[in-house]
Structure prediction request, 661 residues.
Amino acid sequence: MTPSRPRRPGELGLTLLLIGSAFLLGREAYRISGFAGPSSPGFGPLAVVAVVLGGLAIELLRILRRRPPEREPLAVRVRRIGHEILPLPVLVAMALLVAYVTALEPLGFVSSSILFLTAAMLFLLRGPLSRRLLLAVPVATGTVAAIRLLFQELFQVLLP
Amino acid sequence: MEKALGYFLMSWVDPYLFFLVALGTLAGIYVGAIPGLSVTMAVSILISFTYAWDTNEALALMVGIYMGGVYGGSRTAILLNIPGAPAAIATALDGYPLAKLGEAGRAIGVTTVVSFLGGFVGILALAFGAPLVAEISLMFAPRDYMLLGIMGLLLVASLSGESLLKGVIAGALGILVSMVGLDTMSAQPRLTFGSSALLGGVSYVAVMIGMFGIAEALVQLHTIGAPVVKQRVDRVVPALSTVLRHLPLTLRASAIGVWIGALPGTGGDIAALMAYDHAKKSVKNPSRPFGQGAYEGLVAPEAANNAAVGGAFIPMLTLGIPGDAVTAVIIAALFIHGLRPGPNLMVDTPHLFWFTVGNLTLANFFLLVFGLTGIRLFAKIVEVPKAILLPIVVVLSVVGAYAINNSLTDVYWAVGFGIFGYVLRVYGYQLGPVVLGVILGPIVESNFRRTMIAVRESWTGFLLELVSHPITFVLLIGILLSVLRGTPLWPRLSARLPRPF
Prediction:
């Protein structure tokens, strides 16, 4: 037996969340046709939910057997979560992504995409702000222009 | 025979058709390589503006796109760990580690040559084995398709990285996603939580774009500060000795590709995964450990998925049944052009069969030419800083998701699955099983239900069905062996088995 690694931050929470969601899906699956015959439309969803729940139950037991994370000051814990699970670039990118798709309808594809690309590149690039601006704005504008040309004009794809 | 040769050479001698096949292959390679754009999508879009075209012209372009697109998906799998198509999922497992080692050029070179060889095996099978394979495929019953789907799911579970259990959970989650919406057999809403927006289900393309486009971009942000690996693309054309060393595996993987591709409902994606699994189990001394940049891990799936192209045309042209999503779209295109794919197609329009075989052969040669000459330019993409590349990948994913149905709902799904996929990845769940669950789930479920209806919902009858038919029994044994090989019991059992050699 290899010595068990300590629990990762959020590991238990994610598993419990997945179990909770699986129960909700199980209830919804039961509503389709109850425990009717195996060819009924509800049988498949119920069976798959059972597999998910069974798997998650084993995973939960495995997690509970692991050493719980050592007690540490809140600031250290937040820094560790940030480092291992949700680093700042990911957090900001997720926020920008949500803002981008929210803005697609009111602002349209061209404006929202240029804004998203510029903001994301400005944040992710390294170096002085003026240099980042000089790179991000033309690249963002050029990319959106190229996408518009390629997809809308050539592939005849409607853009959001 | 003379007539057949004439039909075969039509695109070779007609400059316009020749140009269309070349254009289709080139477009297919690049469309297949763009994350978020799939070859299915490209062919679907093409259909809309080939309505007024001559059937031969439309077919020439579409066949080129199909051949190029299946191959093109491997490029982003190698360079960015983002498979351009489901058929390239297995390619990323060893292709991306090779790119990280700075061997992207060589990897793409090997991929191109084995794709060409695999494609050629597929075309040969189509030309000479079509009637035979079609006959065998006709013998498949729903229970066999169900077992085939389960076999595909098991292969994914064995590719689940650190934890088989997490692979099973991820695959099951994918199946649940595929069940959302109206039931195809009873038209009853399932897992919709009373929302009419969910009645149409979740597009698997949106799930794929979210999981492999957006989630991958978010995961890559963990290493945003890491220096970019300069790709060694000086040696693109692989040495003959390299090709010859991998030739036996290429041929074995191509045979798997032809067989799986020819089975209706299964395409290059399952073929590539099965071939990868075969390579993993049969190659004793890979160039590097599998998953860490083994060339054998590239050769097997790439030969198989291109061989599956020729295979997929067999049920399409002879039975009118799609071999995969792209052939389903091509069947729709044939209907639009007034043709009826199926057993009568070869009787009514025999030229179409040999014309398609000729187009595929020509497209395969173009694949080799374009594949080996465009790598340097393409590999430059990976040298672009991630700070620029990743936001562009996200925008392309959004465009790709929107293009599915011209609906923002698919964009929201893609983003939702992107963020969910990121969380799963961070906690050690692999995303391949989720996507394969979405694709294979409906095949397994619908065929299971058909089998149960056939045996009047009797479990005893169901079990008897599994063991009393030779093809079904062989598939069942294959599944059991596959499960057994993944358990600690296998080394003990195999040690007791007598060795034939």
Residues 151 and 157 of chain A are 5 Å apart (CA to CA). Chain A has two domains: 11-84, 88-154.
